[in-house]
Amino acid sequence: MKSLSTNTVGGDEKKLRYFKDFVLDKFGNLNIEDIDDRVLNDYTDYCRDDLKINPTSIHNYHKSVQPLIKFSMIKGWVTENPYDKVDIPKPIQRTKDDIPTMGETKILKNHLIDYVNDYLNGDEPFRLINIISYFQIRLGMRVGEVLMMKWKKGRDDIGEKHSYSYVYLNSNLTSLTVHFKKRKRILPIKDELPNLLKKIKSDTKSRIYVLENHRRKKDGSRHPQSTNNRYKTSYCSRPLKRLLRELNIDDKYSTHCLRHSFVTDLIRKDISLTKIGNVVGHSDIRMTQLYGHL
After folding, report:
1. Model confidence over 60-115: pLDDT tens digits?
2. How far apart are alpha carbons 162 and 180 in whole angstroms?
3. What is the number of alpha carbons within 13 Å of residue 3 lying toward its C-beta?
4. CA 80, CA 86: separation in Å to the nearest integer?
5. How far apart are CA 119 and CA 132, in angstroms?
6. Rounded (10°) angle between helices 256-268 and 102-120
7. Contact at 8 Å (CB) between 176 and 185?
8. Could you tell me which of 43, 26, 4, 7 has the C-alpha nearest to residue 232?
9. What pTM did the predictor assign?
10. Residue 176 φ/ψ, nearest 5 degrees
């Protein structure tokens, strides 16, 4: 798994723990050669009926188990791949109905712009989901890119086209270097963004990452979920849905839909697909076309 990013490996480790708990609970200790298609099909049922996750997530959960089987075959512990007899649920294909409409995008965008202006003027408190969403609609960033954004370049934040991801600001807060999914791009930081970043640093006292988990209780004591590190991408789902409901927008949308909206908005402005792809970090123009649902 050395070819995978640290984010992917971390996610796979978490999903493998689900698989381990399932096997131990239902079958007890098993030798690796006893993990057959029956066990894997039962795991599908467990994910659907007990974990209550959708076909896309079930597909991803199986994708985390498959390297274990492949590794076991390389080692000679398993002679046949049980996945040859397993029908893994297919991911749900995203459609145009899964992306905010032009009207919904306008409502959300205007709300976030107004919030940032009020926050800079001291009329609004720091609200994490608003800040994250603003960076997404302003720069077209993935939520993972926003959350791993550092104040400065780290010692290991070098190189291109490898699995290691990094995001960092330059010293005078005028550009952002993003290396994600083996693709590197540099985004200009202008207008109100430098001032926003300075206020975030002043208010949150973050040191390494721009958005660090220094949560406090109302009495000022340390929150039990505070890690003093960067937030995980799983944090954003529920807060975003609450924000959407506050704005009377359907809460079915995910954080990644903000990136979709950014791309679609640029397409509506007749900006070339090649330029859009470079801004958001697509390696293939067909991906940009897919985002724009052309």
Report:
1. 899 989 989 999 999 999 999 999 999 998 877 665 557 788 899 899 999 999 99
2. 9
3. 1
4. 13
5. 14
6. 110
7. no
8. 7
9. 0.73
10. -125, 120
